[in-house]
Design a protein that fits this description.
alpha+beta; 8-stranded antiparallel sheet; 5-stranded antiparallel sheet; binds flavin-adenine dinucleotide
Length: 460
């Protein structure tokens, strides 16, 4: 492992407000842990930043010492690029402030904020914006990759609601980017990932949501999967955008509303979310109950912040995870058959295939408005292989890869960079499609030496 001269690290410590963590420090192993338990990397130095000035010092130190740089928000990304071997990790998880301006419906958010912290702060004012579905995910990585969740059909992608960012460039300049200032950089940061600089503050647009919404699950037997998925496909064609319904195929967790003999068996789950008038929502979801003979359901009025944490118990940190993802414009019969075939051979009790519905507001934005340009995508599919024992790596990874291959012919162009693994570097150009060439030009302007290359890398 690389060791740094103690004189230079002491100097860095003296310059920053946050903390420097080195391999021999007691907190080192805890600080270098990230969500995906498969990733075990050992940085030469970790800088736990307390503000933009600390980021400037960390970047300068890394460049002076010829170190690779990784950027960590909340450390959720599956590829594990938040951390690196022998380099410097800029750890932003210590920057957790959220300021809400309820009159202007704006939130100013530091990059270490998790979705749970964000939701709690904005929901205190009855406000929200579209973000992901797991409360421990980081707002930073989610936003720079695109971002979608239950509110996306109605209000768009997370990046569609980004007003401005403050960021530190690789040369150490603290700048603001918005539609009016450094507009090219603002275009790139909305989907282009961690390629262009280190964001130290995000400004989001907010909407009145809840605080109570209608949400829950209906669980159907796996042998009715084709019927349920076909009816789902028809139903979502005309469902209003306040209503979002996803599909999850997995082995049933021991949920108390399911008969015990269903626990551990393959099921089709419809997670349902409705943010409009509750009575109206009750009527709208009624047809979903007729999709088959459900094993059970658990649907009710609940605080938005509770629903935003509903899947946390299935997504705890530390397990081994391997993901693959496609976008879909349509769910063709071939796509449904492939989903059902592979959901019928899940290699572990935690593996799942999910289909997220994003049809609505995102499709009304022109594809070249910003880096995230998959404006024809109406569904995002993720095959989520998840298991505990390293001896199951091959079986679980092979299952995910084979499903990915089998479903590929039915997918539309592009891919969601936030769901890509470390080994998918050669898929980056295809993931961005027509927007890739402009991203390369902007990368050349803001990071010509590819200082920030530990990401889904856009090479200058
Ligand atoms: C359990 C789980 C559930 C998820 N659910 C959803 C979902 O519902 N919707 C969705 O859209 N996505 C979802 N995701 C994907 C998620 O958006 C990405 O994993 C995202 O990268 C997480 O952000 P982070 O800050 O936690 O990640 P990190 O691993 O800390 O960062 C990921 C990358 O983002 C870049 N980055 C981070 N911070 C900054 C910054 N301040 N400035 C510049 N670049 C930065 C870096 O390149 C870094 O390597 C989910 C992921 C997991 C693991």
């Amino acid at each position: 492992m690389m060791t740094l001269k103690s004189k230079s690290t002491e100097q860095l410590k003296g310059n920053i407000k946050g903390k420097v963590v080195l391999p021999l420090d007691a907190s080192y192993d805890e600080v270098r842990e990230i969500w995906n338990g498969m990733i075990d990397k050992r940085p030469a130095i970790i800088v736990q930043c307390q503000g933009a000035d600390d980021v400037v010092h960390a970047l300068a130190f890394a460049r002076r010492n010829g170190l690779d740089i990784s950027i960590r928000g909340a450390g959720h990304n599956i590829a594990g690029n938040a951390i690196c071997d022998d380099g410097l990790m800029i750890d932003l998880s210590t920057m957790k402030n959220v300021r809400v301006d309820p009159d202007r419906r704006r939130a100013y958010v530091e990059p270490g904020v998790t979705l749970g912290v964000f939701d709690a702060a904005v929901q205190a004012h009855g406000l929200a914006t579209p973000i992901g579905i797991n409360s421990t995910t980081g707002i930073a990585g989610l936003t720079v990759g695109g971002g979608f969740g239950w509110l996306t059909r109605k209000y768009g992608m997370t990046v569609d609601n980004l007003i401005s960012v403050e960021m530190v460039t690789v040369d150490g300049d603290l700048i603001r980017a918005s539609e009016d200032q450094n507009a090219d950089l603002f275009w790139a940061i909305r989907g282009g990932g961690g390629n262009f600089g280190v964001v130290t503050q995000f400004e989001f647009k907010l909407y009145p949501v809840g605080p109570e919404i209608l949400a829950g699950l209906i669980v159907f037997p796996f042998d009715q999967a084709k019927q349920v998925l076909t009816k789902y496909r028809e139903f979502v064609e005309s469902a209003p955008e306040e209503l979002n319904v996803w599909v999850v195929l997995r082995k049933a967790p021991p949920l108390p509303f399911l008969p015990e003999d269903v626990h551990g068996r393959e099921v089709v789950v419809l997670p349902i979310f409705y943010s409009g008038d509750i009575e109206e929502g009750q009527k709208l979801i009624e047809p979903l109950r007729q999709f088959g003979d459900a094993h059970g359901e658990h649907i009710g009025v609940q605080p938005f912040v509770d629903w935003q944490q509903a899947f946390d118990p299935l997504l705890t940190p530390g397990a081994r995870n391997y993901w693959k993802s496609h976008n879909f414009t349509e769910l063709s019969d071939g796509a449904l058959d492939s989903i059902i075939e592979f959901a019928g051979k899940l290699p572990s009790p935690q593996c799942e295939i999910f289909v997220g519905l994003i049809a609505g507001a995102p499709n009304r934005v022109a594809p070249d408005t910003m880096a995230w340009g998959h404006r024809d995508a109406r569904f995002v599919l993720n095959v989520h292989a998840r298991w505990d024992d390293a001896r199951d790596d091959d079986t679980c990874i092979t299952w995910a890869r084979e499903f990915f291959k089998s479903s590929a012919p039915y997918a539309s162009a592009g891919a969601y960079v936030n769901f890509m693994t470390e080994e998918e570097g050669d898929r980056v150009a295809a993931a961005y499609g027509a927007n890739f060439a402009r991203l390369v030009e902007i990368k050349k302007k803001y990071d010509p030496e590819n200082v920030l290359h530990l990401n889904q890398n856009i090479k200058p």
